[in-house]
């Protein structure tokens, strides 16, 4: 299990807000620390939170990184330390990748351009597969590819919508593969 999953599964939202000394009412609402308010509109669930005022939402890791202004790896390690979660000292590939990426300065322009191109690539690929998914022809490679990949693509599209930065950090290799595939199909 990677450190992210480990932390998410072992730290409850309840223990997290207690750790930060934040008050939660009986309905599990608290004053949102992320926007100005007088009535509590941030609701905590077992392992996540949602603010009905500013729409900020996420896991215990997200809460921590917003609250302490850290990046995802810092926040995760912070929680592992505070809640005594033994983590393998050797970084997993995914963690190392995130760390490398966050060290490298990514200019906003490069990032924005990448996001735009990625949307083009993914949506083009999606359209191709979508059309082929109605051929119901097992001899058609693209029909088979569509059956295998459309659900996965939905998931990636949601991810890209919800957290472009994390998507950028974790999926560049995958996007390259898709991009090559789209190019080969357009030939
Ligand atoms: Zn809020």
Please, could you describe this protein's structure?
With about 190 residues, the chain is an alpha+beta fold. The protein has 2 domains: about 5-90, Zinc finger, CHC2-typedomain (DNA Primase, Chain A, Alpha-Beta Complex); about 105-185, no CATH class. Helix content is about 60%, strand content about 5%. It is built from 8 helices and 4 strands. The protein has a 4-stranded antiparallel beta sheet with strand order 1-2-3-4. Strand 2 and strand 3 form a beta hairpin. Helix 6 packs across helix 8 (about 165-185). The longest helix is centred in the middle third of the chain and has 25 residues, at about 110-130. The radius of gyration is 20 Å and the shape is elongated. It starts with a helix and ends with a helix. The mean pLDDT is about 85. The structure holds zinc ion (ZN). Zinc ion (ZN) binds near residues 32, 34 and 42.
Question: How many runs of DSSP E, i.e. beta strands?
Answer: 4
How many helices in DSSP terms?
8
The quaternary structure here is: single chain
Helix content: 55-70%
What small molecules does this complex bind?
zinc ion
Radius of gyration: 20 Å
Number of domains: 2
Overall, the morphology is elongated
CATH topology descriptor of the largest domain: DNA Primase, Chain A
**Architecture per CATH nomenclature, i.e. the level-2 architecture of the largest domain:** Alpha-Beta Complex
Could you give me the name of the CATH homologous superfamily of the largest domain?
A: Zinc finger, CHC2-typedomain
Secondary-structure element sequence?
A: HHEEEEHHHHHH
Decide which structural class fits the backbone. alpha+beta
Strand adjacency order, main sheet: 1-2-3-4
What is the terminal-to-terminal distance?
41 Å
Which consecutive residue ranges, at least 5 long each, have pLDDT under 50? none
Mean pLDDT: 87
Indicate the CATH class of the largest domain.
Alpha Beta
Q: Major β-sheet, in short?
A: 4 strands, antiparallel
What fraction strand? 5-15%
């Amino acid at each position: 299990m990677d450190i992210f999953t480990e932390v998410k599964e072992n730290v409850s939202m309840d223990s997290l807000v207690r750790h930060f000394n934040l008050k939660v009412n009986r309905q599990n609402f608290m004053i949102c620390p992320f926007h100005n308010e007088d009535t509590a509109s941030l609701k905590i669930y077992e392992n996540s939170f949602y603010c009905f005022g500013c729409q900020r939402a996420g896991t215990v890791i997200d809460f921590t990184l917003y609250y302490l202004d850290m990046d995802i790896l810092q926040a995760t390690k912070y929680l592992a330390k505070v809640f005594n979660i033994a983590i393998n000292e050797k970084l997993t590939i995914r963690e190392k990748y995130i760390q490398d990426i966050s060290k490298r300065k990514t200019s906003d322009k490069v990032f924005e351009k990448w996001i735009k191109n990625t949307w083009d690539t993914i949506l083009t690929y999606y359209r191709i597969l979508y059309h082929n998914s109605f051929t119901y022809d097992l001899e058609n490679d693209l029909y088979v590819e569509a059956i295998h990949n459309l659900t996965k693509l939905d998931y990636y599209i949601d991810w890209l919508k919800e957290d472009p930065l994390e998507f950028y950090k974790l999926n560049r290799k995958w996007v390259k593969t898709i991009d090559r595939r789209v190019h080969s199909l357009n030939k």
